[in-house]
Structures are given as structure tokens and as C-alpha cells.
Design a protein that fits this description.
Blueprint (H helix, E strand, L loop, with lengths): L3 E4 L10 E5 L28 E3 L6 E7 L4 H19 L4 E7 L8 H13 L3 H10 L3 H4 L4 H10 L4 H9 L4 H14 L3 E2 L1 E4 L2 E2 L6 H12 L4
Parallel strand pairs: 4-5
Antiparallel strand pairs: 1-2, 2-6, 3-5, 4-7, 7-8
Length: 222
């Protein structure tokens, strides 16, 4: 298992870039917080390719592999992403695609990914995505986050009975695993990782750098 990967500087709060917190170990097979006591139930992956923001006709697609428990992902989501949404997504230049990549070193990252998928089942993925990152204290406590996640679901307007059934049945466990395998096949080793129009992005993970890249890709050719 390898430790920390640095992506050209620290995330905005400590300099404006993105740190990668990575691991090359195989993902855990058990449910989050259960010590790996039992395999996750198998569900159809149904060809799901991630949750998106932005227009289907946007000329640039940025694919993000992220871990809800990762502090660097939280910093990116809370500091850089709001600007990216305003400058690039809302203006029709970028379609953003979110893919789960829970790291095996994080105890509750798969459970958080499952919460996001269960919210997505009710059309509320991005609402829960934002709460999981902006209210990131749950990731520092070391305690099972079932209760705060349920609070997030309530705040996001989810039907809690349906949410509970989805979580308890781990309905989207196989979908999450498929996303991990996709990321591994693409060479992802840490989070957050980005691909721009299908190509790995190795630049700084700041809104300014993404804007400069997108502008270069979309400017008219003379």
C-alpha cells in the first residue's frame, strides 16, 4: 500500500492545488464499517456511467473520480467546485461527471458512496453530495456515520423509508464497485482524479487552471 500522492500543490486552503490521497491496494469487499464480515450483495450495474452536471451538448467533459471521506476531495468540492459550476458548467462549456472511487484506507467511504447512490435513486444525488462534503466533520469522528447521513438525507428532502431500505439492502454496492474497477482500469490511484475529454489531467486542480484549459479547448480556430 502506498501512501500520499501530491498533485502539484496543496488544495486551495493550503495553496490552491490538489493533493492526491492514494492507495494501490485492492478495494475492500465488505460493507463499510462491518469489518468485511460478509460480501456485499450483488446488484445489476446497469451500465451506469455516473451523475452529471451541465449540458449534454457541452464541448468538454470532465470526469472526476472521488472519495467522500477524502479530505482533499472535500476541499476541492467546497472551494473549487462552486466556481467551476458558475464559470464552466452553468455557461454550457463543461459537462461534469462524478464517479465513485472509495479508497480502501477509508473506513466509511463506501458507505458514503452508497448514501450518494441512494439519494440519486430519488433524484437528489447532488444535494447529498454537497452535504457529505460541506459537512465533512463526520469523516473525522471515526464513528459510524449512519445517523448524520440520515440527517443529510432528511435535509435533502429524501423519502427516508426508501432511503433506509436502499441503504440497508446496499442496493448499489455493485454499481460502486463497477465505478472503482473503471477507475482502476483508467489508471486512477488516488483522489480526486480528473479526466478531460477522456484524457488524464495532470495539471493543478484549481478553478482557474480548469478554466484556462477549457478556454484553450473551446476557443475558435483561426
Amino acid at each position: 500500500m502506498k501512501g500520499f500522492y501530491l498533485l502539484l500543490g496543496a488544495v486551495a486552503l493550503i495553496g490552491g492545488g490538489v493533493l492526491w490521497y492514494g492507495s494501490q491496494a485492492k478495494p475492500e469487499r465488505g460493507g463499510a464499517g462491518n469489518g468485511g464480515a460478509a460480501p456485499l450483495p450483488v446488484a445489476a450495474t446497469d451500465g451506469f456511467r455516473g451523475y452529471t452536471l451541465g449540458s449534454d451538448s457541452a464541448p468538454v467533459e470532465i470526469r472526476e473520480y472521488s472519495d467522500f471521506e477524502c479530505p482533499f476531495c472535500a476541499a476541492f468540492a467546497t472551494v473549487q467546485m462552486p466556481v467551476i459550476r458558475e464559470q464552466l458548467i452553468a455557461t454550457g462549456k463543461v459537462r461534469w461527471r462524478f464517479r465513485d472511487f472509495p479508497l480502501p484506507t477509508h473506513q466509511y467511504s463506501r458507505y458514503a458512496a452508497l448514501a450518494g447512490q441512494c439519494a440519486g435513486e430519488q433524484g437528489k444525488f447532488w444535494e447529498l453530495h454537497d452535504r457529505l462534503f460541506t459537512q465533512h466533520q463526520w469523516a473525522q469522528t471515526g464513528k459510524n456515520p449512519r445517523s448524520p447521513f440520515r440527517d443529510f438525507a432528511r435535509e435533502a428532502g429524501l423519502d427516508l423509508d426508501k432511503y433506509d431500505a436502499c441503504m440497508d439492502g446496499q442496493r448499489y454496492a455493485a454499481r460502486i464497485q463497477a465505478s472503482v474497477q473503471e477507475g482502476e482500469a483508467a489508471g486512477v490511484r488516488g483522489t480526486p482524479s480528473f479526466f478531460v475529454n477522456g484524457r488524464p489531467y495532470s495539471g493543478r486542480g484549481t478553478s482557474d487552471d480548469f478554466k484556462a484549459l477549457v478556454d484553450s479547448l473551446t476557443k475558435p480556430h483561426k
